[in-house]
Amino acid sequence: MDTIFLIMIELRKKYKSGSALEILQEAILSGDLQGGIIITQAELAVSLEVSRMPVREALIALEYQGLIERIPGQHVRIASLDEGYIRAVFTDMGIIEAEAIKSLAAENIHALSLCGRQTDFHRAIRQHTDSPLRRKFLETITEVYVPFVLRECGNVSQIDAVFGNLLETVKYPLDMEILRPCFAVYTEVLSREFMRIRKGKTSHA
């Protein structure tokens, strides 16, 4: 308990300008809070110097985002974001987005091909995803995981390059046999950079 408390105090200092959700989100994604750590809501509230309400709200969001697991006794376990998990998350994102694009009208596909920013690209696809469950999944990955990679990646030019190739394929008439492999390359680069960021941060901890 003492060790966890000290870790949380250091995280509060490191991410002092963020909310409870932002602090915990960034700490888990980066690996500052390592997978498997168990902590209570009360410990989080005390160490972050906030009331239990924002902590409770943050944990609801984090559980939905796959970053924590609730266990009995108001305890939570930090998710283990290992390579297999992260690769599967980004792969699933690419599969769902490719399927969503396949059903778009020509004018929507053309508009999508003009998106210069990756965040805009993903949001536009999400708007045209029919399944509410898939939309929620895409929202988590494209609003939490992808921005983390783009923000922390020191070699964002490589991601930009494969994203540029992906945009080139998003044109009408659309060839899905070309689009799917392009998404696969893009999501592989994202997952690889995600793990590289985590390894880099933990090695300097």
Which structural traits does this protein have?
single chain, 10 helices, mainly alpha, 3 strands, 205 residues, 2 domains, Arc Repressor Mutant, subunit A, three-stranded antiparallel β-sheet
Major sheet: 3 strands, antiparallel
Structural class call reads mainly alpha
Number of folding domains? 2
The overall strand count is: 3
Radius of gyration: 19 Å
Give the helix level as a range of percent: over 70%
The largest sheet has its strands arranged as: 1-3-2
Rounded average pLDDT? 88
Taking pLDDT < 50 over at least 5 consecutive residues as the criterion, the unreliable ranges are none
Task: Give the helix tally.
Answer: 10
List SSEs in N-to-C order: HHEHHEEHHHHHH
Beta fraction: 5-15%
Dominant shape: elongated
Between the first and last Cα atoms, what is the distance in angstroms? Answer: 20 Å
Give a description of the structure:
The chain has helices at residues 2-14, 20-30, 41-48, 52-64, 83-102, 106-113, 118-127, 132-152, 156-169, 176-203; strands spanning 38-40, 68-71, 75-78. With 205 residues, the chain is mainly alpha-helical. The chain has a 3-stranded antiparallel beta sheet with strand order 1-3-2. Strand 2 and strand 3 (75-78) form a beta hairpin. Helix 3 (41-48) crosses helix 4 (52-64), helix 7 (118-127) packs antiparallel against helix 8 (132-152) and helix 8 (132-152) packs across helix 10 (176-203). The longest helix is centred in the C-terminal third of the chain and has 28 residues, at 176-203. It starts with a helix and ends with a helix. The mean pLDDT is 88.
